[in-house]
Design goal:
heterodimer, A: mainly alpha, elongated, B: mainly alpha, 64% helix
Chain lengths: 110, 277
């Protein structure tokens, strides 16, 4: 149990924490727009932290091949970081253009 | 009529299930596949084709015919979509009203009864239901699309050594163009990659595959026996098989790319090639 393992575990569990929060949020929030909030933000951050943990764990036995694999995982992180918020924005934009009104306090869940 | 159909379905299903009982059990070491087929491929692929990825070698070399007709099936799927859905302009009311947008100022003008503006950088033709593309989505896709296409080329070219090949790479390439059509609009995407070009590419992909096979036939070997290409490529017959696999993978990639875009264009705009979705 060296310092690297502890960092990996902390990153992995904080990633899992955010992913769980995202899943609970998608189930519990009242309408389309507010459900997209956890789906866009928490999933991005959660997978970002978890992927970084994978990349670090992969460097445990250090070699050039392992470094390349870690770099590829980090490239996936960059891709998710760019694509997921853009996709969420696109879905919200489509909802606004289709004329869906946001939920306000006191209304029923939909 | 429904009852007859139900009877046919039930009888066919029962026959299939009955026949499936004769299959060898899962991971049965005495089954024909495990006694000589798999060990042969595992042992001989590297020395016969010099391709480390056995799946690629089996797909494009040992079972080249199967893959060639799979590519043909994809080609026919694109052609069928085109024939079923495409509505040519002659059937619609003529002359049509055209809309143009001045790119710098955003002013939209409407031209009636078949008048048109010659193509220029100042005006772009738009649809009646045009909505301005969102800046965030446009920029995000503009950053991502080149890397997606680069990765697709990597997947096609690296099929010999890692999971991948023509089908997967072609799908990723097609998806990048579809992403462009979603983030901008269909008319912009069709302007970049015209309908004619897509149709030609679709046929060219299949022709590259079949042409490679026919070339082997011309060089006095069996159809799709790539070792015949050794003389043309100036390599030994084993490396020639590896290069032949790469050639047909490129053909598959082109065919899949064009078919993906063709099907998307036709389905999303219901064959009118106007504002998609």
């Amino acid at each position: 149990m060296d310092i690297m393992d502890i960092i990996v575990l902390v990153l992995l569990f904080s990633g899992l924490f955010f992913l769980t929060g995202g899943a609970v949020g998608i189930l519990r929030f009242p309408d389309f727009y507010s459900r997209l909030h956890p789906a866009g933000k928490l999933d991005t951050l959660g997978s970002l932290l978890a992927m970084t943990a994978f990349a670090l764990f992969n460097l445990h036995h250090f070699s050039l091949g392992a470094l390349l694999t870690s770099l590829k995982i980090l490239l996936i992180v960059v891709f998710i970081f760019l694509a997921s918020p853009t996709a969420t924005h696109g879905i919200v934009d489509a909802g606004v253009r289709a004329g869906l009104a946001p939920w306000t306090k006191g209304q029923k869940r939909r | 009529m429904k009852i007859i159909g139900l009877i046919i379905v039930v009888v066919t299903g029962a026959l299939l299930i009955y026949a499936a009982a004769d299959f060898p059990a899962w991971s049965d070491p005495a089954s024909p596949a495990s006694t000589y087929l798999s060990p042969y491929f595992i042992e001989k692929t590297m020395e016969e084709t010099s391709v480390p990825n056995i799946v690629t070698a089996v797909l494009a070399d040992y079972r080249g015919f199967d893959t060639m007709f799979e590519t043909t099936v994809i080609f026919s799927a694109g052609v069928v979509c085109f024939f079923l859905l495409r509505i040519s302009r002659r059937e619609e009311e003529e002359p049509e009203t055209r809309y143009y947008r001045h790119v710098l100022t955003g002013v939209t003008i409407q031209l009636k009864e078949g008048y048109k503006i010659p193509p220029s950088a100042d005006f772009e033709r738009i649809d009646a239901v045009w909505t301005p593309p969102d800046l965030i989505i446009k920029t995000g896709c503009r950053i991502l699309i080149p890397f997606i296409q680069l990765f697709a080329l990597y997947v096609i070219a690296h099929g010999h050594h890692s999971p991948g090949g023509g089908f997967q790479g072609g799908v990723i390439l097609g998806a990048s163009v579809i992403l462009f059509a979603i983030s901008h609009d269909l008319r912009t995407a069709v302007r970049r990659m015209s309908e004619k070009l897509i149709g030609i590419l679709c046929a060219v992909g299949v022709s590259i595959y079949a042409g490679t096979g026919a070339l082997c036939l011309l060089l006095k070997q069996n159809f799709l026996d790539y070792s015949a290409l050794a003389g043309v490529l100036h390599v030994d017959p084993i490396t020639a098989r590896s290069h032949g696999i790469l050639m047909v993978e490129i053909g598959v990639g082109i065919a899949v790319l064009a078919t993906m875009i063709w099907i998307y264009n036709n389905i999303s705009s219901a064959g009118r090639y106007r504002q998609g979705l």
